[in-house]
Amino acid sequence: MIGLFRSAAAYINAHRGKTFVIVLHGEALESANLPNIICDLSLLHGLGARIVVVHGDETGDLETASGAPAAATDAEAMAEIRQRAGGIGIVIEAMFSQGTSKSPMHGADVPVRRGNFINARPAGVVDGVDLQYAGKIRKIDDAALCSELDQGKIVLLPCLGYSITGEVFHLQAGEVASATALALGADKLVVFVPGDGVREEDGTVLPTISVAEAERQRRRLLGKSDADARCTGLGLQAALRACRGGVPRCHLIACRNNGALLQELFTREGSGTLLSRDEPQVLRPAQLADVPGILQLIAPLEEDGSLVGRPRELLENEIGNFRIIEWENTLIACAALYPVSSELGEIACIAIDPGHRDQGLGERLLAALEQQARAAGMSTLLALTVSAEHWFQRHGFEQSTLAELPAKRRELYNLHRNSKILRKKLP
Questions:
Q1: How many CA atoms lie within 13 A of 235 on its CB side?
Q2: Does residue 286 sit in the same domain as residue 263?
Q3: Which of 72, 120, 256, 349 could disulfide-link to 169, CB 3.0 to 4.6 Å?
Q4: Are residues 119 and 166 in the same domain?
């Protein structure tokens, strides 16, 4: 338990003061897990996050693949939608108000606010059909929303918009969520979906996904007939709108899994699918502040003898030789390029976090270091290894001998380790 809290500390600090837009589609609202989701949102709020909750209704969200309403909403249907929206809002407010001694929210005192934050207009006539009370967003009152968030309140947005004529229009949850996230400059959009995230056709959950891949998956999911797949597709559609508009991170997580939100936001493994506007994994030169993370990353490899031990003082002096890859502000891979001579560089200390192996991180680091070596005028790379000989050979290295090492490097060779020596000519 102590280790769990300590490992979550970095994420707690990273999320404090950030703005989250949370989407609860009809499937999430009907789930038996909804009270747990509300408890987790209360905890996130208590840790300093600014939260807007967008909810649909129990009938699901009628939206086409293009984002337009799928059907007309007449006056009778609109009356039912308004009644459902009010009832759902009351239920959610009641859940946020829990505070008995046996409740996880004891002492939380979460203030929730609703209001006419969304200005809407009629969706109009589409293909000759008057959609009546189906609406489109005209404007988000971001100043009023920010005022409520600045006061430490959770804002609850139903899928309703209000017009200058005093009418109420039915909106789609995905459209409301993405537009709100963009208006607020939100840091994250979190969509609760029926499954464990975006699944590939073979059932494998995609932990991270690019914009191009997300578009492909969106079309595939919306082309299916089952409700769960379409709901995930609509969630991905909302995430794509937000991501393309500038929201840095969008998450699709399971509405039926207890604790999925906390696992996604506060653990390295995560839960669900992350869509990132930029590349989720950032490769950059290492800095002194990265030394503790590198030490933690290489410690298991030093213990099993794969790497030579590096004390902190040595690593601090050599930090300029290292490149790292970080994901969600967490260091997950490292490697170093040591200059042996003006024409020769040595690749060393390649380490990948176990939870992120088989993702091509080693290849990315090697490619970056090769580019760095060429820029420095080096023509040859050297690698000494006791466990990764075949990996280096797959990437163009060839076997070499101790006699071929430069004299100064040969003096430092550890005969006891008997490392394999490999070379690669740079094109």
A1: 38
A2: no
A3: 120
A4: yes
Sheet with 135-140: strands ordered across:
135-140, 118-122, 160-162, 168-170
Please name the residues in contact with 147: beta carbons below 8 A apart, sequence gap of 6 or more.
none
Q: How far apart are the first and last CA of the chain?
A: 51
pLDDT tens across the length of the chain (427 residues): 676 777 777 788 888 999 999 999 888 888 899 999 999 999 999 999 999 999 986 544 445 444 455 567 888 888 888 888 889 999 999 988 886 656 666 666 789 999 999 999 988 888 888 888 888 999 999 999 999 999 999 999 999 999 988 999 999 888 999 999 999 999 999 999 988 888 877 777 888 888 888 888 899 998 888 888 888 898 999 999 999 898 988 999 998 889 889 888 887 667 888 888 765 677 889 999 999 999 999 999 999 998 988 999 999 999 999 999 988 678 999 999 999 999 999 999 999 998 888 778 899 899 889 989 988 999 999 999 998 999 999 999 999 999 999 998 999 899 888 999 999 998 7
- In this structure, the answer to whether residues 257 and 301 fall within a common structural domain is no
As for how many domains the chain has, the answer is 2
101 with 55, same domain: the answer is yes
- Determine the structural domain holding residue 51 and report its residue range: 2-278
- Cα-based torsion angle of the residue sequence 263, 269, 274, 279 in order, rounded to the nearest 10 degrees: 140
> 125 vs 69, 74, 76, 134, CA distance in Å?
11, 13, 19, 10
- Same domain (yes/no): 89, 188: yes
CATH number of the CATH domain containing 253: 3.40.1160.10
Residues 52 and 120 in one domain: yes
260 and 323 belong to one structural domain: no
Nearest one of 76, 110, 113 to 95, comparing CA atoms = 110
